Amino acid sequence: MIEINLLPKELKKKKIKLELPNIKFTPIIIGVVAFIVFVQLVLSVTLMIKKGYTLKRLEAKWTVFEPKSKELLAMNEQLESLTRKVKNIDSLVAKRLSWTKKLNDLSDLMTPGVWLNSLSIDEVGGRKILSLKGSVSSSGMDEAALIGKFMKNLKENKSFFKDFSEIALGTIQKTEVKNKEVMNFSISCYFKSAE
């Protein structure tokens, strides 16, 4: 194909020839390159030696700390175990029945003419029961009414009743002691079921 360029000479594209300078490798240039390569090798070898030395030093430190590390891990496991036990104990203490308070309430709720002969915790049909056995003697009032008043006091006292689901009258039996009529009774206080 023929190309015709009608542009004037000033506007025509000029072809640029690239010529690389003729560089002769002289001994100085070879020496400089060899020196740079040598310095690079020395630096690389120095770095590798330093890394190896640092690694050995760290491994030596680790061998010193490794038994202590295992000991710390064992102590940490013991601490976690003790923490769990303390939490369990705290939850049990929070749910624990305060017998001092319970017995004090019971004493405060006693009706004149009524006294307790025994107090025990029994288990009947899988339920725990606080069994109260007592006697009543009165010259002016009906003994059954005194027992009823005592039971009413037990049920209405929130501090005493909070741990029980039900308070029920058991047996009542009349006896005579030294020519005086005495009525023996039993009351069952059913503990709330453990959750």
UniProtKB/TrEMBL annotation:
The chain crosses the membrane at residues 28-49. It holds the Pfam family PilN. InterPro entries: Extracell_DNA_Util/SecSys_Comp, PilN. Keywords: Membrane, Transmembrane, Transmembrane helix. This is Fimbrial assembly protein. It comes from Candidatus Aquitaenariimonas noxiae.
